[in-house]
Amino acid sequence: MNSTVPIIATSRQTRFHPTSSTSLDLDLHDVTLTLGSTELLTSATLKLSPGVKYVLVGRNGTGKSTILKALAEKLIPGIPGGMRIRLLGQQMEAVDAREGETVFEWVVRSYKEMEEVKSRVGVLESALEGEAGGVVEVLRRFEWEEKGRELAEATRIASLRSGVRGMKARKEQKAAEKALEEAEKRLKERYTDDIAEDTKKAATMLAELEATLEDMEASTASTRARALLTGLGFKPAIIDSPITTLSSGNLTRVYLASILFQRSDLLLLDEPTNFLDLTTLLWLQDQLQQHASTLVLVTHDRAFADAIADEVLILHDKTIERFAGNLSTFYKMRAEKIAYLTKMSEAQEKQKEHMKASIASAQAAARKSGDQKKLAMVKSRQKKLEDRMGMEVSTKGTRFKLNRDLPGYHKTSRATIDIPSIPPPPKLHLPTPPHLPPTTPLISTTSLTFTYPHSPSPTLRDTTLTIHATSRIGILGINGAGKSTLVKLLLGELTAKANMVTRHPRVRCGYYSPAMVERLAGEERTALELLGRETEQEGRVELSRLGLGGKAVSDVPVRALSGGQKVRVALALLLNPPPHLLILDEITTHLDAETVETLAKALRKWEGAVVIVSHDRWFVRYVVEGETDNDDGEEEEGEDEGVQREGGVYAVVKGRVRRLMGGVEEFEEKVRKGKVK
Fold it and tell me: What does the alpha-carbon distance between residue 391 and residue 619 come to, in Å, rounded to a whole number?
């Protein structure tokens, strides 16, 4: 979303709301959040407990990134002023590097609070060693700076509050303005104070600042910064090179190192696994599991989310729901709850219709015979009909309480069956590929070895791989292992020696890479114009099958679409004409968790061949290994049991491509044991 659009946030606060600036609890009620004219939250509740790891989920465009930004900038009234909040966003500001500053130096300097304390310690030490008047000047300057910060905080709070609390905040703002004026006046006065007393104050302040540095672990700052950068995959030569020479992907990892390097109370991470290979992803996973801060994580990687989440925050219908457990458990239990309540509701509807028919029959018979006693019984049964319908047990499976035992007015004795409403799954339909027999080899390699010009050693060695018409193949490996080289050789973008790569004469390939989205970032044409179909209707039909429609495809330039929408545009381009083989390189980046699941299900059912290059473990397990979310291992609805799927999971390690019989789990184990480098 456009960062220039204003974010407006409100929340309900009372005079009993805690105002402690050191509180680590976040308890916000009736939160309303708008981005420009778009309302993202309405009367929502957001409660974060210290040290708990949360995963925030929601469809693309529902406002996850905006919520994180509103929290980081403390735009929502009720966020403690002293809470240290760090944000890693998807769109970072330009790096503020000094001339020639290295990656390591920038990360250390990014901890501004520590740098300021260090600066104050140095100034105080110099003042105490110099002339007596210097101590007075330093103390007064420190006081003036502190009053300036207090005024800035008072102004921020006053801008967020209204009513009685707003009036009180504005009074505090005026008091802070007056305090700053007095501090500025003292700063300009001659030093007539008790110099001995000021020297004592300076010594006490110096001791306090040194204790603060110790709490910040300043003595180990250099070691920690290098360890974080190394853990995120940077070589020593890169760590000590100018930060301005890094690519956007490497800069994102540097920003992540900076966020982890600084002390925080609340850590907000928006898609931190982008640009990470599995080695660094697992390292980050371990780091976050041990991190003491409260964490709110937005990620498309379900395996990563499941490993970290204590609770899930579900952004849906402009509210935030909570679920105690990880993401997979939430999806599973939600589906089970909907199925259970739907079955109960349908059974009761049948029972209700049967009772209605029985009552109508008894009523007709009583009227015909003129039996007033039977008519009264019929009326009594009719009156009780609705009263008997509703929950047979509570939603938790325990005995329900009759509504007559609960406060308020109720039309029935039992609680109504409230089936959770969820938006329909994201739309994503893949076209049927041209027919080829399932056992037809589309591309095969035999003892493939490839060396780039001027390279001292081969990038790939002795690689034998066959992709059949219905294969499902996953390719894993760390960054720089040779995965992209292998894909380019399969596609013919790089030329191997004769007879090393064989392609079926009719094979059509559709290749997705992150570079496609990067190229679309500068595309001024609309999706319909870019697709270039003969009629607008034809283009709209193709795009609607991938979940794109309305004004987004006809009025909005592609560059202004969200990352997830750009991925869909890229898919539309490579799916026409329909290919026999899809090669998808890190396609889950930019997609939300539910869209990733929808894409995985579509790929699993697709009749063509699929090669996936990805660090998303759940995605590869589901599409390639046939893993199911069902505990009983049964086929999921829509699964094509008649299609023979060949392939498996392959790892590219030190230039060699080998099949992993243990699949993704085996590769993850090798990474953890340090066998993949």
Answer: 37
CA 336/CA 327 separation, integer angstroms: 14
Tally the residues of the chain.
Answer: 677
Quote the radius of gyration of the chain (alpha carbons, Å): 32
CA 98/CA 75 separation, integer angstroms = 30
Q: Is the peptide bond prior to 453 cis by the omega test (within 30 degrees of 0)?
A: no
| Lowest model confidence (mean pLDDT) among 19-33, 397-411, 514-528 | 397-411
Q: What pTM was estimated for this model as a whole? A: 0.80
| Other beta carbons within 10 Å of 635 | 11
Give, in degrees to the nearest 5, the angle at Cα 315 between 314 and 321. 50
Tally the C-alpha atoms within 13 A of residue 498's C-alpha that lie toward its C-beta.
0
Q: Are 435 and 361 in contact, with CB atoms under 8 Å apart?
A: no
Complete edge-to-edge strand list for the sheet that includes strand 581-585: 501-503, 441-450, 460-468, 656-659, 647-653, 472-476, 609-613, 581-585, 509-512
For helices 132-160 and 163-188, angle between their N-to-C axes, nearest 10 degrees: 160
**Contact between 5 and 35 (Cβ < 8 Å):** yes
HSE on the CB side for 558, CA within 13 Å? 24
Is 40 within 8 Å of 67 (Cβ atoms)?
yes
SS3 29: strand
Beta bridge partners of 473: 611, 648
What HEC string does 558-604 produce?
A: HHHCCHHHHHHHHHHHHCCCCCCEEEEECCCCCCCHHHHHHHHHHHH
User: In terms of C-beta distances under 8 Å and separation of at least 24 residues, what long-range contacts does 385-388 make, across chains too?
Assistant: 385/352, 385/355, 385/356, 385/359, 386/411, 386/412, 387/412, 387/413, 387/414, 388/413, 388/414
349 vs 31, higher pLDDT: 31
Mean pLDDT of 636-659: 74
3-state SS class at 396: coil
- What distance in Å separates the CA atoms of residue 310 and residue 297, rounded to the nearest whole number? 11
Rounded to the nearest integer, the mean pLDDT of the chain is: 85
> Which of 638, 666, 629 has the alpha carbon at shortest distance from 327?
629
In terms of C-beta density within 10 A (0-12 exposed, 13-18 middle, 19 or more buried), how is residue 407 classed?
Answer: exposed
Q: Is 390 left (phi over 0), alpha (psi -120 to 50) or beta?
A: left
Provide the residue type at 8 as one letter: I
Q: Measured at the alpha carbon of residue 61, what is the angle toward residues 55 and 67, in degrees to the nearest 5?
A: 50
SS3 85: strand
Is residue 21 a contact partner of residue 74, using CB atoms and an 8 Å limit?
Answer: no
For 132-144, write each residue's pLDDT tens digit. Answer: 667 888 888 888 8
CA gap 104, 93 in Å, rounded: 18
Over residues 239-246, mean pLDDT: 92
Q: What is the pLDDT of residues 592-604, one digit of tens each?
A: 888 899 999 999 9
Place of tokens 């309302």: 39
The rounded Cα 383 to chain-centroid distance in angstroms is: 51
CATH number of 441-672: 3.40.50.300
Paired with 659 in beta bridges are 650
Cα–Cα separations (whole angstroms), residue 550 to 173, 521, 536, 543, 556: 48, 20, 12, 10, 10
Phi, psi at residue 248, to the nearest 5°?
Answer: -65, -35
CA 473 to chain centre: 26
CA–CA dist 209, 212 (Å, integer): 5
3-state secondary structure at position 34: strand
The partner residues of 441 in beta bridges, in order of sequence, read 468
Residue reference for tokens 């319908």: 389
Alpha-carbon distance of 163 to 42, in angstroms, equals 20
Structure tokens at 494: 């790089």
For β-strands 501-503 and 441-450, DSSP reports them as antiparallel
